[in-house]
Structure formats: C-alpha cells, structure tokens
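Per your request, structure below.
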C-alpha cells in the first residue's frame, strides 16, 4: 500500500514536470499494467490468453504551453493513445479487433475554473489523483464499445453452415473412389 502511494506520487511529479517543461514521454503498456482493461475485455468474451498477452497500448504524453482559463493559467498535457483492442463479435465470438487512435488534452489543477468546465475539448486532472496507467486505462475504458457485432449476419456462422458436408458430394466422392 505504501509502495503504491509512493508510485502515484512520483508519477504526479513527473506529470507536472512534463507539463511545465513541455517534455514528451512515450512508451508501451501491456495488459499487466492495465488490469481494469483486461477485466473489461474478459467480460466482453475475450478469453484467448495469447491474444490478451499480445495487447499493447502505445502512449505519448506531451507537455503543452500553459493556457489561460479566464484569469487562471494552468499547466497543460496531451495524451495520445494507439492500440488495437482484440474485441470479439458478441454473437459468434470471432475476432473483431477495434483500432483506437485518440488524443486528449488536460489542464492540471485542483479546482477547475469556470472557463475550463465550459471547455468541451479539455478535461482536467487533479494532481495527486492519477497515474499514467490509470489515465490510459480510463480513456480506453471510455472508448471501449459496449458491444461489437457483425452488422448483417455473422460470417463465421454462415461459413460453418456452408462447410457441413453435402450428402450428395459425399456420395460423389465415394463413386470417384470406386473407379
Ligand atoms: Zn458475428
């Protein structure tokens, strides 16, 4: 518990440093670092361990010039997230990977000024309440479609039906074998 607190604290120091110095931090996270996302994927029927192990989320955190919201100037960050979530059709369970390619902007503050609350483009982050992993996870969970499904009919089901041996074809093959 103490270690976790320390880690979150260090992350915040890094975020503020990134924002103030307008630096960039890039990396890749696997599901081991994103347990809530893994749980959500499993709940959506993604059960293939190899596929889950291969999920990787590329992120880029970039400090932006501080911006005024009314009278208040706040440190700014942007986050980009690129991944392909291995979702499955909720009807036939064949893979339907969903690409996520998103960018978010945040102002860092304890109390968001009115002008920031009115800004639809920019979210706010309270220092002391987030880590990079939980931020990426929150955004991906919000981007996650509740249900993906083949639009018309499920291809896999049709294919399976078509692959059933046709009794006449079987007879034909037997006849050919006899010759
Ligand atoms: Zn389907």
């Amino acid at each position: 518990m103490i270690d976790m607190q320390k880690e979150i604290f260090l992350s915040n120091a890094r975020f503020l440093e990134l924002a103030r110095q307008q630096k960039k931090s890039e990396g890749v996270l696997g599901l081991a670092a994103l347990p809530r996302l893994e749980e959500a994927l499993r709940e959506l029927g993604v059960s293939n361990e190899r596929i889950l192990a291969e999920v990787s989320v590329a992120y880029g955190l970039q400090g932006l010039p501080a911006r005024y919201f009314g009278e208040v100037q706040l440190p700014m960050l942007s986050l980009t997230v690129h991944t392909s979530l291995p979702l499955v059709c909720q009807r036939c369970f064949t893979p339907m990977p969903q690409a996520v390619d998103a960018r978010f902007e945040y102002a860092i503050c304890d109390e968001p000024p009115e002008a920031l609350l009115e800004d639809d483009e920019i979210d706010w982050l309270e220092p002391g309440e987030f880590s990079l992993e939980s931020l990426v996870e929150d955004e991906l969970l919000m981007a996650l479609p509740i249900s993906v499904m083949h639009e018309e009919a499920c291809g896999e089901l049709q294919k399976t039906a078509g692959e059933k041996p046709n009794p006449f074809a079987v007879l034909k093959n037997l006849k050919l074998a006899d010759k």
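The longest strand covers residues 56-69.

Regards,
D.
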